[in-house]
Amino acid sequence: MLLSYRILDEQNKTMEINFNYDGVTKSERLEDFSKEKLGKLFEHYDFLIRADVFFKTENTTSTDTGMVTSIRLSAPGPRLFTDTNTNTFEDGIQTCVNELTRQLKKRKEKMKSF
């Protein structure tokens, strides 16, 4: 299932967020949590265009894994991507956003040098 949202900020810039559920039931709570976290990235990095968020379940014997969260960001240059396998999607979103923040800091530094 694919869902799409647009976020409009104070300067009338939009960021599109697409949600893709693979073997997972659609969740407003997950979408709101994701939009909140990604909205913060959008505020700090105005060059972001779009985010694709993927939720997927895996069969696993471990109770610490099985919920796969992936986020792909569209920005100038190569796309940024991260994924994680945790026991909850909320933990996965937080882990992915932390990793993307690290990647975005590197990207912004490279952009400043040009």
- CATH class, please? Alpha Beta
CA gyration radius, whole angstroms: 14 Å
* Oligomer classification: single chain
Strand content: 25-35%
The CATH topology corresponds to Double Stranded RNA Binding Domain
Structural class: alpha+beta
Q: Care to count the β-strands?
A: 5
Q: What is the string of helix and strand elements?
A: EEHEEEH
Report the uncertain regions. none
InterPro entries: RHF-like (IPR036567), RHF/RaiA (IPR003489)
Polypeptide structure, described:
The protein has 114 residues and is an alpha+beta fold. The protein has a single domain (2-112), classed as 2-Layer Sandwich (Double Stranded RNA Binding Domain), CATH 3.30.160.100. 36% of the residues lie in helices and 34% in strands. The chain contains two helices and five strands, in the order ββαβββα. The chain has helices at residues 28-44, 89-112, and strands at residues 2-8, 14-22, 50-57, 67-74, 80-86. Strands 1-2-3-4-5 form a five-stranded mixed β-sheet, covered by helices on one side. α1 (28-44) runs parallel beside α2. The longest helix has 24 residues, at 89-112. The radius of gyration is 14 Å and the shape is globular. The model has no long low-confidence stretch (mean pLDDT 87). Pfam families: Ribosomal_S30AE.
Strand-helix topology:
Layout: E1 2-8, E2 14-22, H1 28-44, E3 50-57, E4 67-74, E5 80-86, H2 89-112
Helix pairs in contact: 1-2
InterPro entries: RHF-like, RHF/RaiA
Pfam families: Ribosomal_S30AE
